[in-house]
From TrEMBL:
It comes from the Bacteria. Keywords: Flavoprotein, FMN, Oxidoreductase. This is Probable nitronate monooxygenase. GO terms for molecular function: oxidoreductase activity. It comes from Paenibacillus illinoisensis.
Amino acid sequence: MNRVTKLLGIKYPIISAAMSWVTSAKFVAAVSNAGGMGVLGPNAGQNNSARSLDEFVENVRSEIRKVRELTDRPFAVNYILPFDANGTSSFTNALFDVLVEENVKIVVVIGVIMHRNEIEKLKKHGFTVIYRPINPTVQNLIEAETAGVDALIVTGNEAGGHISQYEISLFTLVPQATDSLKIPVIAAGGVIDGRGVKAVMDLGAEGVYMGTRFVATHENPASDAAKQAILQVTSDEFLRLEGVNERTIPTIGGKRAFQLIKEGKHDEAGTYIKNGFKTGLLDGNLEVGTISISPSAGGIKEIKTCKQVIDEIVNAIS
Ligand SMILES: Cc1cc2nc3c(=O)[nH]c(=O)nc-3n(C[C@H](O)[C@H](O)[C@H](O)COP(=O)(O)O)c2cc1C
């Protein structure tokens, strides 16, 4: 037991990351049933983008209800703050309403900019709030703590998905964060096994938030082609897509995105990569799509069940 397991009501402080297109009720429930905590990400359980706000809301509602059919353990939903400083977002507001209606208890909030009013609103309605700054620094982590969040996810630049604009590794950030904060820190980025979890806990983290390792599980909705690419890639092969803050496995689609960046076509590459998340990872079309994950994939040699991943970590750290 530590502050994270107590806060969330879970057995082990191991959380599967919110990942666009590659989470689902089945996957989230598998992580929660294994004693960790699953998080429904954007587009969870879907194969197509919602065509309207209403459809988006019903998709989220239906996936939350499916999780509850599969587990009675705690789970969370990803909550995306508006991207501009003064803005509100109809998407964020709709998400808030459905989470209240469905009595969701825990949210993993992400943002480029901290919106204190959103945090206050979530806390007022009784949510447990875990906050993950997309571009974490010691300063913005402290700012989030003063806004009243319950725990912070500290993401190192070696993470998968959209990465921080700052070149700060997990090894650098976690000790500085834990020295400066009173609330618990959960480490994210490049952690794939018990050795990694042990290391971040030695640095002061009280939990781990893992994306890439959990993509390569049987229950994850990612395509078989993407999972095989993860097993085969080595860490030195990754392409760094400067200007759009992504890294990708060098599939044909990945190489094309890299070329666009080299030609200075960042906007075009950005659109390409946004589509690539779904096309590559979920649909398995590696000619067009990208596979944006952490270079730690070089150490992943086997597709496992979520329970195996969690049990092996627990055995290694206990
Ligand atoms: C394919 C993919 C998609 C992601 N999409 C999201 C997202 O939609 N929301 C979010 O909060 N984080 C997203 N992330 C980041 C993860 O939440 C997490 O911070 C990251 O996976 C941790 O690093 P790791 O992959 O090395 O374990 C994504 C990560 C991956 C690999």
